[in-house]
Amino acid sequence: MKYIVLFALVLLTIAAIDNQTKQKSLEEQHPSLFRALKNMALLQEQSQQLDYSRLINAINDLESEILQNKEDENASFNKDFLSNNADQEFYENQITQYQVEVSQHEVDLADLTEARNTLQQLLNDGIKEQQDVTLLRNQLDQQIKTDAANTAAQLQEYDDSAAAIDEAINLLTSLKNADTLVQVKDKLKTHLSKQKVFFQPLIVALTDIAQSNFANQELISKVTNLLNQLRTSLLESRLQLVVSSQSLEALNKGLLTTYEEKLNILSTVVLPDLRENIEIKDAEIKAKNNLLNDARSNLEDAQDNLKATQDAWIVRSNLNSKLLQQYDTDLSLIQQVKQSFDRAGIKQ
């Protein structure tokens, strides 16, 4: 009967430990031990001469197995600890590397964007300069044509005036009546009215000639001399006009050539080069953006992997604690059983 009581004590001990640790019972954890104890109690009822050596050996083997499992768990835990630390260090190094890459790519991207904006501003300035120079070229070209037309008109006026003077001189050499004088007067009025320095004295002289019945040869000679002086003055003025207009035309055409050369450089060299460089910078910015996005993605993956590794270690640590607690509980229970055997006088 004492072994029945012993079995009951063992079961009560197991139940008490289960309530404290909330772990599985001995029957669930070690069914062989449970059956062995149960059979021991039953056999004791049948015989006082039962051999307990096999049961004791089984308990000792179970204890050794639990101790080995505990040792194996500690070894596995230490190995997992080193492996997890290595993994965490690996991902931390990756995070540092990708953070450096992200920062460098961001700096590079900012530099490329600034360079691209500078090129775009230069292109805008070049286009504006092209428009301004084109406007100046067109205005100057029109000015050259206008000046040429005005000069031609003035030269024609000088030529017409000189021709009128020549005709007036010819008329004066054969001046006989008022009709001839009127012709001279009309010619001079038509072409020389602007030459007031000469025109007014000529009109006065012609009037005096008319009053002398065209017989005052001295006065006629005087008028002829005035007309010759006027013709000489007109020719000198014409020559000055030709020289000044040619000089101005040469200056303007030189400036026009400068504008044309400037426009040619802008349209064939400067603007195409700027557009090409902008395209190159756009391609570099696109490539750098891709690298930046890849680095950011790699950084996120490394951070996720580190978090997962840290979380996995928390789970592994909790599992280790539970296993060690269970092993210690089982070993304590076995010690209690052994102590019960000792009190029952069963040799181990």
Mean pLDDT: 82
Q: Report the span from N to C terminus.
A: 20 Å
What is the ordering of alpha helices and beta strands?
HHHHHHH
Structural class: mainly alpha
Question: Oligomerization state of this entry?
Answer: single chain
DSSP summary: helix tally: 7
Largest sheet: none
Indicate the overall shape: rod-shaped
Q: Helix proportion of residues, in percent?
A: over 70%
Low-confidence stretches: 1-24
Brief overview:
This protein has 348 residues and is mainly α.
Description:
The chain has helices at residues 2-21, 26-29, 31-46, 53-173, 178-192, 196-211, 217-344. It is rod-shaped, with a radius of gyration of 63 Å. Helix 3 packs antiparallel against helix 4. The protein has 348 residues and is an all-alpha fold. Residues 1-24 have low confidence and may be disordered. It starts with a helix and ends with a helix.
Strand and helix map with partners:
Layout: H1 2-21, H2 26-29, H3 31-46, H4 53-173, H5 178-192, H6 196-211, H7 217-344
Helix pairs in contact: 1-3, 1-7, 3-4, 4-5, 4-7, 5-6, 6-7
Name a few traits of the molecule.
0% strand, rod-shaped, mainly alpha, single chain, 348 residues, disordered N terminus
